[in-house]
């Protein structure tokens, strides 16, 4: 029989989900002390006596009990668990402790919690270690725990309260849809050519298509990853573009010990004071200066795991909604309860005049990217290196861009105003081609879904406004659709499974000839042509030159190392 508290009373406190390593739960239970090391410390300072805590064993993926905080959070460095530092603690009393055979698996509740709506999945919530729960979620979990404990009276009480809360929910507000996103009177093609001249005049060599792709990607989605060898100008590109367009760009150096968003967004210290992070400060500047475009540059962003320290920001990217006056905004980034003096920070949102750019080095000291990050970003690799190129050193006067020049035409295809006949033909080509790709990507577990479809289509429409800029230094045109596949589809492909192998083989043949390759000997004949040309980053004879060349690189890596990846 589960251990239960004799009575249950209504309360005014909050409820929390606390993720605990399974091997440490017995010590927490025995000492009636819950603790965190670093991740979760900011949330812990908001916990008060009487708050309810749902204990979740992160490794076992089960809900094991309901507890109540009996005191204020405190610090204590005496060992709680051998070999593990848990300095930030709170005393608790058990209300319901389930026996192991009654533990509640996460499948029973993970898709029923409202808190998950702010994250890509339940795992992202658990990574916060300690997370506040809406009242509705509290009643969902309490009902499950009370029912498992055979406390039917309290279970039904929780169920009735859950029904009442859901019935009292306010109806969703219908927002007016934005009609168009246009920078009136702004000649985008001329401005982009002037930008290329400015970069050249500053002594930096970038292929025109790289600059055009960077600007177009940033306009389409406010998160861009810049990859490439050291010394190719990854960190310098966003700073120079900001300098030339009258924008503001700031370097935000990433440290390897970042395990949560405390350094970027901020945290509440042990004295109850809010310490804003450097990203939140920059976003607040952007919110206070809506007429200017801001860029935060996460330098070497994969020194730590972006899906952990950018969790809230990544969720907000998909929370964007258009504004009637133009542009877009999101809900506030912070999910902390702040003192009245700090309420200004609690209202900081991601606005249309702000973007994040991350630079990437791929070596043994860095982390790989999760699908959560890759799916939300455009990945641009600075591959075109011409050591013989000598940039001009003439002074070129920069031309400021209006902030509306960075607004997308729409956030999603469904919001796009009626396209012209030429644009409709472009969209038809995009959608038909993506449908073809999914014939091989779907069985491999990497299908192109609606979000990627919309972003590829909008990138191609945006690129069509500056077609002359999508060229190499020698003047060869670069197909924006080919570039979009390379930036949005290929970075997601990695692994060594037979279905992925079949997909890569078919895609490579299709990218070169327009027809899938079904046998390895057919593929070898194609690869011999490419290797004889010196392993170029653009396969000139291919239907999609950049996509084909990168797929060839990925296939060779699969053969030599047994693992295919976009990242070299």
Explain what the structure shows.
With 568 residues, the protein is of the alpha/beta class. Helix content is 37%, strand content 15%. The protein has 20 helices and 20 strands. The strands form five sheets. Strands 1, 2, 3, 4, 5, 6, 7, 8 and 9 form a nine-stranded mixed sheet that branches. It has a five-stranded parallel sheet with strand order 11-14-17-10-18, with helices on both faces. Strand 4 and strand 5 form a beta hairpin. The longest helix is centred in the C-terminal third of the chain and has 24 residues, at 421-444. The model is unreliable at 3-11 and 172-180 (pLDDT under 50).
Low-confidence stretches: 3-11, 172-180
Helical content class: 25-40%
Number of helices: 20
> Globular, elongated, flat, extended or rod-shaped: what is the shape?
globular
Short description:
The protein is α/β, with parallel strands linked by helices and 568 residues long. The chain has 20 helices and 20 strands. Strands 1, 2, 3, 4, 5, 6, 7, 8 and 9 form a nine-stranded mixed beta sheet that branches. A five-stranded parallel beta sheet has the order 11-14-17-10-18, sandwiched between helices.
């Amino acid at each position: 029989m589960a251990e239960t508290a004799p009575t249950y009373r209504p309360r005014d406190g909050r409820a929390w989900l606390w993720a605990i390593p399974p091997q440490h739960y017995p010590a927490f239970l025995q000492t009636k002390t819950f603790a965190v090391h670093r991740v979760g410390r900011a949330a812990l300072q908001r916990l008060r006596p009487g708050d309810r805590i749902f204990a979740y064993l992160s490794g076992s993926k089960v809900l094991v009990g309901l507890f109540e905080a009996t005191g204020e959070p405190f610090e204590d460095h005496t060992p709680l668990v051998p070999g593990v530092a848990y300095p930030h603690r709170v005393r608790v009393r058990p209300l319901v402790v389930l026996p192991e055979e009654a533990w509640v698996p996460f499948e029973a509740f993970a898709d029923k919690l409202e808190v998950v709506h702010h994250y890509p999945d339940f795992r992202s919530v658990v990574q916060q270690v300690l997370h506040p729960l809406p009242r509705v979620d509290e009643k969902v979990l309490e009902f499950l725990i009370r029912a498992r404990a055979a406390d039917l009276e309290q279970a039904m009480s929780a169920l009735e309260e859950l029904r009442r809360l859901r019935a009292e929910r306010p109806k969703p507000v219908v927002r007016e849809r934005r009609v168009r996103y246009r920078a009136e009177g702004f000649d985008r093609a001329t401005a982009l050519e002037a930008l290329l001249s400015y970069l050249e005049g500053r002594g930096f060599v970038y292929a025109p298509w790289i600059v055009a792709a960077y600007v177009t990607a940033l306009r389409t989605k406010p998160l861009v990853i810049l990859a490439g060898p050291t010394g190719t100008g990854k960190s310098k590109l966003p700073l120079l573009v900001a300098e030339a367009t009258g924008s503001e760009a700031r370097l935000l150096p990433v440290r390897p010990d970042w395990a949560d968003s405390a350094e970027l967004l901020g945290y509440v210290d042990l004295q109850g004071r809010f310490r804003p992070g450097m990203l939140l400060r920059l976003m607040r500047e952007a919110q206070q200066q809506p007429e200017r475009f801001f860029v935060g540059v996460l330098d070497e962003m994969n020194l730590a795991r972006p899906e952990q320290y950018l969790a809230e920001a990544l969720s907000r990217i998909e929370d964007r909604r258009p504004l009637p006056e133009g542009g877009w905004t999101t809900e506030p980034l912070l999910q902390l309860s702040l003192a009245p003096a700090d309420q200004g920070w609690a209202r900081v949102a991601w606005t249309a005049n702000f973007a994040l750019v991350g630079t990437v080095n791929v070596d043994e000291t860095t982390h790989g990217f999760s699908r959560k990050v890759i799916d939300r970003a455009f990945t641009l690799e600075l591959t075109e290196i011409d050591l013989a190129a000598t940039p001009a050193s003439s002074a070129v006067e920069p031309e400021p861009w209006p902030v509306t020049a960075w607004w997308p035409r729409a956030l999603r295809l469904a919001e796009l105003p009626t396209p012209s006949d030429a644009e409709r033909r472009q969209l038809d080509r995009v959608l038909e081609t993506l449908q073809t790709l999914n014939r091989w990507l779907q069985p491999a577990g990497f299908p192109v879904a609606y979000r990627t479809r919309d972003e590829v289509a909008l990138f191609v429409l945006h690129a069509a406004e500056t077609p002359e800029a999508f060229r190499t230094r020698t003047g060869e045109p670069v197909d924006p659709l080919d570039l979009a596949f390379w930036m949005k589809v290929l970075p997601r492909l990695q692994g060594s499974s037979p279905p992925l192998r079949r997909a890569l083989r078919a895609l490579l043949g299709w990218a070169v000839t327009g027809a899938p390759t079904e046998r390895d000997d057919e593929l070898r004949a194609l690869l011999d042509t490419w290797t004889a040309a010196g392993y170029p980053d653009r396969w000139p004879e291919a239907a999609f030159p950049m996509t084909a060349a990168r797929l060839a690189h990925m296939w060779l890596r699969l053969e030599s190392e047994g693992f295919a990846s976009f990242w070299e």
